[in-house]
Design brief:
The chain has helices spanning 4-9, 34-46, 182-188, and strands at 12-14, 17-22, 27-28, 31-32, 55-62, 69-80, 84-93, 96-106, 130-131, 147-153, 166-172, 206-215, 228-238, 241-249, 255-265. The longest helix is centred in the N-terminal third of the chain and has 13 residues, at 34-46. The chain has 267 residues and is mainly beta. The chain has three helices and 15 strands. Strands 1-2-6-7-8-5-12-15-14-13-11-10-9 form a 13-stranded antiparallel β-sheet. The chain has a single domain, classed as Porin, CATH 2.40.160.
Length: 267
């Protein structure tokens, strides 16, 4: 199984374009896992932005499918200010533009404002939550074999539930590193399905069109075996499109990011 560590180790530039080679374990239907592609785009941009400027926001638009094999990431710095750096990345698969991403990096500044969101109270611990094991041939996306998932709250997918809220604990399965990196944290933030699928009465494909991630806590220094949690809910759903939001809670119990996605749902 191709780990994220292995992909990042081989993520080297070729004529200023970074190349990643993906295997079938990172697929999600006919395209690669969007969280991985966004993470690699962020990694390509990070090569041109110093680490003393933390990632503050990330926006991705998924244009077309990304298959197995070589994927090209062309990153550029668009502007460097006194505190803020703006960068972008174009992703190509099979010679076609498949995704575009924009990132905002900002050094800390003094401010009279200090407002931080509070994570939702969850009475179910990772040890108490129900494991969702990955089984080959089960119909689950292949990329899920890289993660452990334990559901603390939420109905089964396609169970015609009346409530869409879900809380899922997540951590990596087979990453040979002791600590989480920025890249590991970003990919994990997209590793649950849209909660709208619990409202449906039969299996239906879904595909993310756009993903916006606002980073609130830039400390990603946690053990690889520690549990993160995604608290997600549907904001709106109509005419085949779903908007859902998530609070990403880090192992210290702080809201590390707010995630928002627009997803097409067929059915």
């Amino acid at each position: 199984m191709q780990s994220l560590v292995r992909i990042l180790a081989a993520f080297q530039p070729r004529d200023r374009v970074y190349i990643a080679t993906l295997d079938e374990t990172w697929m999600q239907g006919r395209t690669a896992f969007g969280g991985l592609i966004t993470t690699l785009a962020a990694s390509a941009m990070r090569q041109q932005v110093p680490v003393d400027r933390p990632l503050r926001a990330l926006q991705a638009v998924f244009i077309g499918p990304i298959g197995e094999g070589e994927v090209a990431f062309e990153a550029a710095v668009n502007r460097v200010g006194k505190a803020v750096t703006l960068a972008s990345c174009t992703v190509k698969s099979g010679g076609q533009v498949s995704m575009s991403a924009t990132a905002m990096y900002g050094a800390a500044r003094e401010s009279v404002l200090n407002i931080k969101p509070t994570a939702m109270q969850c009475d179910v611990t990772p040890d108490q939550a129900k494991e969702k094991p990955y089984r080959e041939g089960s119909g689950l996306p292949s990329f899920l074999q890289h993660y452990q998932q334990r559901w603390a709250r939420g109905s089964r997918l396609f169970s015609r539930a009346t409530e869409s809220q879900m809380s899922v604990y997540l951590r990596y399965r087979n990453e040979d590193v002791p600590r989480i990196t920025e890249a590991h944290a970003l990919a994990l933030m997209d590793a649950i399905p849209t909660p709208a699928l619990a409202l449906m009465d039969k299996p239906s494909p879904a595909s993310t069109l756009s993903w916006t991630l606002d980073i609130l806590d830039t400390n990603f220094d946690f053990g690889i075996d520690e549990w993160w949690r995604l608290d997600a809910d549907v904001d709106a759903a109509a005419e085949g499109y779903v908007v859902h939001s998530s609070h990403v809670v880090n192992p210290a119990g702080r809201v590390a990011a707010i995630s928002r996605q627009v997803v097409t749902v067929y059915g």
